Amino acid sequence: LKSQTRIARFYRFS
Amino acid sequence: MLELRLVQGGLLKKVLESLKDLVNDANFDCSASGFSLQAMDSSHVALVALLLRSEGFEHYRCDRNLSLGMNLNNMAKMLKCAANDDIVTIKADDASDSVTFMFESPNQDKIADFEMKLMDIDSEHLGIPEAEFQAIVRMPSAEFARICKDLSTIGDTVVISVTKEGVKFSTRGDIGTANIVCRQNPSIDKPEEATIIEMEEPVSLTFALRYMNSFTKATPLANQVTISLSADLPVVVEYRVAEMGYIRFYLAPKIEE
Lengths: 14, 257
Prior knowledge:
heterodimer; B: globular
C-alpha cells in the first residue's frame, strides 16, 4: 500500500 | 485602497473555476508586485499558488499590502455573473470587510457591481524553494486532462515515469491496468501541440488521480501544461495565465508505507 504524504512536510521549514 | 482592473475578465473566471473545487477558503494577497494566493486543499496534500503580476492589469492600485480572505466558491458564483468578455475590476478599502467586483461590458452599455463579504482566514504560508527538477515535461494541457480522466476510470493512482523514451502514465485497478506513453514531439508548426521532455535523469513517482483531475480544471487557461518531477518531492503542475502569471499546483507523492 502507498500512503499520501502531506504537502507541508516538504515546504514548512524551507 | 485596492483597485485592480483586468480587461481580460474571463481569465479571472477561469482561475476561480480551476481553484474552487480544490480549496474552500483562501487569502488573496495584494501587493505592489501583484495579486497572489497560496492555499492548501482541505486534506493538506495539495498546494496551489497563483500569481497575477500587476503589469498584467490595465489599472493596478494597491496602496498597502492587503490580504483578502474569500470563500472561493462564493467568489466563483459572483464571477460567473460576469460575461467572458467583460472587464472586471476588484475594489476594496483598507479597513473594509467586503470586496466589490465590478463587471463592465466591452462597449460600456452594462455595468454591474457585486459586493462580497470577506472572511478572516487563518492560513499557514509555506515556503516553496526554487528547485532543480530531474525531469520537466511540457505537453498539451487537453492531452494531459484526457489522460488523467481516462486513467481515473481504471485506477486511483497514476505512476508518472520519465525516461529518454518519453513520459509514461500508468495505473492499475480491479479491472486491469493501463499505460499511456507520450513521446517527445517538437511540433514546430503548431507549438501548442508539442510535447517536450527535459530530463536530467529518469524519475518515477506515484500520485493520487483525484487531485490530478482537480488540477486539470485549469486546462481552459492554457494550451500547454508543465509537469515538473523530482524523486520524493511534490510534483508541480503549472498552467500559465496569459502573459501575466501562473497557477501552480503542488501534489505530494504517495510513498511506500
